[in-house]
Design brief:
Layout lengths: L6 H11 L3 H6 L7 E5 L6 H7 L7 E2 L6 E4 L9 H4 L3 E3 L6 H6 L6 E4 L6 H10 L4 E5 L5 H11 L5 E4 L3 H7 L4 E7 L13 H8 L2 H18 E11 L8 H10 L3 E3 L9 E2 L13 H5 L5 E3 L9 E8 L34 E2 L5 E2 L14 E3 H10 L6 E3 L6 E3 L5 H12 L9 E5 L2 E5 L11 E3 L2 E7 L2 E4 L1 H5 L8 E5 L4 H7 L4 E2 L6 E2 L7 E7 L2 E9 L2 E4 L9
Parallel strand pairs: 5-6, 5-8, 6-7, 8-9, 24-27
Antiparallel strand pairs: 1-3, 1-4, 2-3, 7-21, 9-13, 10-13, 11-12, 12-13, 14-15, 16-19, 17-18, 19-20, 20-22, 22-23, 24-26, 25-29, 27-28, 28-29
């Protein structure tokens, strides 16, 4: 491995590390460590250790509340628990930035450079279903993995964007309590984990990354509320992308200060001397950069990282949160505009051009018309009943089957899938035929490129409502009207994950009082959802989308 490292990189590291250089270089030949992080939206660490065959050998990662080392040779991505969203496979050092962010339930949080979503799901676990998570990545292709990982984890209070920081800052000025900037960087800290990063490092200059990072941080600062916290992190050793970046930021933002990180777990202090000539700072302010941290691979069990905690002075003005607005009480929202954006959905056609006539659930776009329950309930009540009508809202209003709004269908069908669905917090909105529940309190998303406008719960199809896979992943077994459960080593579990049709006795199905066994049921393994099936006459039709199957 050492022989593959670029000479200009090793020379720079020798100058940077001095006496520690030999130990640092030896780390490249040391065995890698592997980590996963338990999804606390589903269960706790001790619960997982008792449940999983990997649990007994797993060791705690000291700086990550839900993090565990697992042994080389284990294959957690091939276990049914992975498909149940019980954990996320993540490099141990990469868990540190979110721990430093100090996310609390109820916070408004932005993950500005979020793909592939590991840190977003870590944030969601700390929010515990309350507050708002906005997860963004400016690379369109990467937002597919971001959205999927958020949905796999069962996150219910997230919005996924595909935007540049400047566009988000225009919509969310001084709005967030916490912002994570896990910045795109030269990736020097990942050479040991992935030697393909060496080629990337040689192609993408440190100077180019530094310019990008400075711009991202500037816009992040504009979106942070007074008293809020930004964590800036990279997976590189370059001072230009680390200490010097923070020095430039402090010089431009007098209302921000470095909040010192305790030097636990073998972490090392940031180097103020590396930024001394970068910006016009007082000596006292310059020295605060020592409160940032470096994670060196020869000092910890993990790869190389850097992190800085930046706090904005002042106190946030606490707004009255609307935590009760919901589908069950549309009358209370008749005079208000629910949060959300107007989107146009596009997908590529065979020529590679955007085709607005073929919507893709993976890529909600700008423009178009967002509809809420009130928009469509009013239209339905104004229209005379006619042949072929179907029942619309809970008030019994009627609408034509071909025109009925997805929001009305959600109201009609929701409690056929999930107990108490009409009392869930948030705003129910539709974009095209798809229905989302948005976290309360969001500003309008008009003009933004939106990948997921909230928790995607399902779609209107030919006058009926079909529940989505993300809806299944966000439920518990006890919340489902119908469910079936098998152990993770049961052949039925594996067959379901492969997309096969299953045959079961009706007695195996758990049915809520007053419901029949026929209909959509939540398929679970070891008590945790893995998708929908549709039961009738002793057979479960597999509703697991192709992209979610165990290939």
């Amino acid at each position: 491995m050492i022989g593959n490292l670029p000479r200009n990189f090793t020379e720079k590291m020798e100058k940077l590390l001095g006496d520690e250089y030999d130990k640092f270089m030896s780390s490249y030949d040391a065995p890698r460590v592997y980590g996963l992080r338990i999804n606390r939206l589903k269960l706790g660490v001790e619960q997982w250790k008792k449940l999983s065959p990997m649990g007994e050998a797993a060791r705690r990662i000291p700086w990550a509340e839900d993090g565990l080392y697992y042994k080389e040779g284990e294959r957690p991505g091939k276990h049914p628990h992975y498909h149940a969203g019980l954990y996320y496979i993540q490099e141990p050092s990469a868990m540190a930035p979110v721990e430093l962010l100090d996310v609390q339930p109820g916070h408004r949080v932005l993950d500005l450079c979020a793909a592939p979503g590991g840190k977003s799901t870590q944030i969601a676990g700390k929010l515990q279903g309350s507050g708002v998570l906005v997860a963004n990545d400016n690379a369109r292709e990467r937002t597919k993995a971001l959205a999927k990982n958020i949905e796999l984890a069962g996150v219910r209070n997230a919005v996924v964007l595909n935007e540049e920081p400047a566009a988000i800052a225009a919509v969310f000025p001084a709005w967030f309590d916490r912002i994570l900037v896990d910045a795109p960087c030269s990736g020097e800290g990942m050479f040991r984990k992935d030697d393909s990063m060496i080629a990337e490092w040689e192609k993408h200059s440190i100077e180019r990354c530094s310019v990008m990072q400075r711009d991202i941080l500037r816009h992040a600062a504009a979106m942070l509320a007074p008293g809020g916290r930004i964590v800036y992190s990279t997976c590189t050793f370059s001072p230009e992308e680390n200490e010097r970046q923070i020095a430039l930021f402090l010089a431009e933002h007098a209302d921000f200060n470095v909040e010192a990180v305790p030097l636990d777990y073998g972490w090392s202090a940031g180097r103020a001397d590396l930024a001394a000539e970068t910006a016009q700072l007082s000596d006292e302010r310059l020295q605060t950069i020592q409160g940032t941290v470096r994670l060196w691979p020869h000092r910890i069990e993990g790869e190389g990282h850097y992190a800085a905690v930046l706090r904005r002075s002042g106190e946030r003005v606490v707004e009255q949160a609307d935590n009760t607005a919901l589908a069950a009480a549309p009358q209370s929202r008749s005079a208000s505009k629910p949060a959300g954006g107007s989107l146009k959905r596009e997908t590529p056609n065979a020529s590679g051009k955007r085709d607005e006539k073929k919507p893709s659930h993976r890529d909600e776009r700008r423009a178009g018309k967002r509809q809420t329950r009130n928009d469509w309930a009013n239209a339905a009540m104004e229209r005379p009943a006619q042949k072929g009508t179907v029942r619309g809202g809970r008030d019994g209003s009627e609408a034509n089957a071909e025109e009925i709004n997805p929001v009305l269908l959600w109201y009609q069908y929701a409690e056929q899938f999930a107990i108490g669905a009409l009392s869930w917090p948030g705003h129910v909105v539709a974009y095209g035929s798809r229905v989302y529940i948005q976290p309360a309190g969001l500003p309008s998303l008009d003009g933004l490129r939106v990948v997921r406008a909230g928790w995607y719960v399902g779609e209107a199809v030919r006058g009926r409502f079909e529940p989505s896979h993300p809806l299944a992943m966000g439920l518990t077994r006890d919340a489902a009207v119908r469910s079936v459960n098998w152990s993770s080593n049961d052949e039925q579990t594996i067959r379901f994950l492969k997309g096969e049709t299953l045959f079961v006795e009706e007695s195996e199905i758990q049915v809520h009082e007053g419901a029949s066994a026929k209909g959509y049921l939540l398929v679970c393994t070891d008590g945790y959802p893995i998708g929908w099936g549709k039961y009738a006459g002793g057979m479960i039709k597999n509703e697991l989308p192709a992209g979610w199957r165990w290939m």
